[in-house]
Amino acid sequence: MKKALLTSCLVALTSPVLALDFSYGKGDFSMSTAINPLLSGKATLAINTWSLSEKHKAINNSRLYYHFKLDYFNSDSVNQFTDFASTPLNSPIPLLGSSIDDLADQFTQLPIPADYRISGVNFDIGLGYDLIKTPNRTVGVALNTGISTPFMKIRNMRNTANLVIDLLDTFDTRVKTYKLGGSLYGEYKINNAMTISGNGSINYQTGQMDNDIVGSGINIDGSYTTFDLSLKYQLERFKNTYLTAGYNVSKWNYDSARVTTPVGAVNIPRVMDIGFDASNLYLGLGYTF
Questions:
Q1: Which has the closest alpha carbon to 100: 286, 251, 260?
Q2: pLDDT tens-digit profile of 133-179?
Q3: Coil, strand, or helix at residue 11?
Q4: What are the residues whose beta carbons fall under 8 Å from the beta carbon of 75, sequence distance 6 or more?
Q5: What stretches of 97-145 show up as alpha helix (H) in DSSP?
Q6: Which residue, among 240, 209, 206, has the nearest Cα to 223 in the 3D structure?
Q7: Quick one: CA torsion of 4, 175, 218, 255, rounded to 10 degrees?
């Protein structure tokens, strides 16, 4: 089904009439990660987002339509604190007579300054059908898919001898997930020049995560949701050119993954939680070819 959807969308994109929006947005990207009880960190960074999109395009003037959006986002490095579990330097790691849970109970939280940075690509594409189609109003539903590749980097962490785990100078987390879900699109034409539209999507996502501490190829599942509200203004002097402005919010929620973390000479099974939220205010320019 995913292959058929992508084929249909690619055929639509080759139609002679094509409208493209290019926009730039500024907003916040929040991320949280935890390998309980070894590591927990939360950070909110200012991000820049560049997008190329078509929110709703009818196919041959029918009720069928396609949509797509390609985002690239990144942030500057921002110094924040991350909590790592630690045990006193003179406290030996028990190998006999203590369970893994007993060992974990000895941990205390130690805040470590670290430089966070985020970057990534997000791509959504879908094929839909207009349930309502009038000169002033449009409501459609679509089946969509896509890919997300957020990449989190934590660097310049202060390595101290009493950390439970032997931290690397750079702690990277790469996520690559594929999405499949449904979306709802609504549009209202205020007048000949101005149109307001909204689009929301809920998706199941599955993929893999690579992490410097717990390893590569970790299977993850979860949900991806997004909502976009935009205003389109057709320029009177330039027939095929229009301006856009709007607000977009996206959430990547991943289910807990079972991982194995090294603590001294012992490998401890633990749960890793990770999630991302992004919000943007954007301005753009569009052109109908």
A1: 260
A2: 999 999 999 999 999 999 888 776 554 434 444 444 566 888 999 99
A3: helix
A4: 29, 45, 46, 47, 48, 116, 117, 118, 119
A5: 100-105
A6: 206
A7: -80
